[in-house]
Specification:
14% of the residues lie in helices and 32% in strands. The chain is of the alpha+beta class. Helix 1 crosses helix 2 (23-41) and helix 2 (23-41) packs antiparallel against helix 6.
Length: 395
């Protein structure tokens, strides 16, 4: 159990106590209960493939800047900082520091994650937009490559397995990307329904879980915001049904809902009504000289009697059959794929950020890649939720 759990609950063995919890206490208590339960349910089974807290200067040795991705003038500098407000000046992250720049950075995992092991994949990290972001990415990527991964050239065209996290540009384009690579289509598949994101100046925790039963889940600040089946939420598979190619709309199918009324006749003299008429209120100017100015004519105005080209009124079509619906048949090309989840078939070996930011100032911190959601939650309790007082009280 966590230290917080021991602190609040171990004393209950010896005596009864009463306290009034704050909002922060309640969040920590809930989180501690999750961690405590997980400790009994998942004894020492979690594996950590990557963890980074950026709390020492050695982070520069662990990460490689994408120095050969773009020209030096296009690339922004990463700043090692705790930010403008913080609970602990030594609890640092990395921050984008120059406006209108690209940012590229990657690091190897401590162990390759391989989908063949049929484990959950959990990616989690924190994002804080101190700059009141208007346009910029803040997503993280999990990448294959192994020993052939070229960290200095890592950029937007580098193949990846997962792209996850916030992307914001303007008030109408705010989302949390969930993009998965699918080898069978050799394509990166975007989640079909938009997942919202946070754009305030507080730190937020983003967690993505990909499970070998072909389901997934997205959490923001440990709250589940989207979950489902991969084949429902992404275009992994062809449609189960297709239009029957041997069927077509019958030639005599009537799909006109209305028809002209055959009893309706154009009134006599209708076409003789002019579109415009002389303005009856216009008067010839006093200084008008017919010899010099020509014969005066009143200006023309729209004729209130003119109704436009005549059209018969429409009535219900007695032969109307409704819209024709194309018959569907099972798609012969449809086949369920048990391995849609397997984005790391050849092993994922690196994590990275490749971003464009118009307005810089985003801080990234507390990254973990593991096979256990409980392990990621425990790490968040030790890091993200310890800083909650600062996040709530200073913006």
């Amino acid at each position: 159990p966590s230290s917080f759990f021991r602190h609040y609950f171990s004393v209950s063995v010896h005596f009864l106590f009463v306290f009034t919890p704050t909002k922060s206490d309640i969040v920590k208590m809930k989180f501690s209960l999750i961690a405590a339960t997980a400790a009994f349910a998942w004894p020492a089974s979690a594996e950590i493939y990557f963890k980074e807290q950026f709390n020492d200067e050695g982070w520069k040795d662990r990460w490689t800047v994408s120095s050969e991705w773009k020209s030096k003038s296009e690339m922004g500098e990463w700043k090692h900082t705790a930010g403008e407000w913080h609970g602990d000046a030594d609890d640092k992250g990395i921050q984008t520091s120059q406006d209108a720049r690209f940012y590229g950075l990657s690091a190897p995992t401590t162990k390759a994650f391989n989908s063949s092991e049929k484990k959950d994949l959990v990616i989690q990290y924190t994002v804080k937009h101190e700059q009141k972001i208007d346009c910029g990415g803040a997503y993280i990527k999990l990448l294959p490559g192994g020993d052939s991964f070229d960290a200095k050239k890592f950029g937007g065209d580098t193949p990846y397995a997962v792209m996850f996290g916030p992307d914001i540009c303007g008030s109408s384009n705010k989302r949390t990307h969930v993009i998965l690579h699918y080898d069978k289509k050799d394509d990166n598949l975007l989640i079909k329904k938009n997942v919202g994101t946070e754009d305030n100046q507080l730190s937020h925790l983003y967690t993505f879980v990909l499970r070998p039963d072909n389901t997934f889940e997205v959490f923001v600040d440990n709250k589940s915001v989207r979950s489902g089946k991969l084949d429902d939420e992404f275009d992994f598979l062809p449609a189960k049904e297709i239009k029957d190619p041997d069927q077509s709309k019958p030639a005599d199918w009537v799909d006109e809902k209305k028809i002209p009324d055959p009893e309706d006749k154009k009134p006599e003299g209708y076409d003789d009504i002019p579109e415009e008429i002389p303005d009856p209120d216009a008067e010839k100017p006093d200084d008008w000289d017919d010899e010099d100015d020509g014969e005066w004519e009143p200006p023309m105005i729209d004729n209130p009697e003119y109704k436009g080209p005549w059209k018969p009124k429409m009535i219900d079509n007695p032969d109307y059959k409704g819209p024709w619906v194309h018959p569907m048949i099972p798609n012969p090309e449809y086949e369920y794929d048990e391995e849609m989840y397997a984005v790391c078939k050849d092993g994922c070996t690196h994590v990275g950020f490749e971003l464009w930011q118009v307005k810089s100032g985003t801080i990234f911190d507390d990254i973990i890649i593991t096979d256990s959601l409980e392990e990621a939650q425990k790490f968040a309790e030790e890091t993200f939720f310890q800083e909650e007082g600062c996040r709530e009280g200073n913006v």
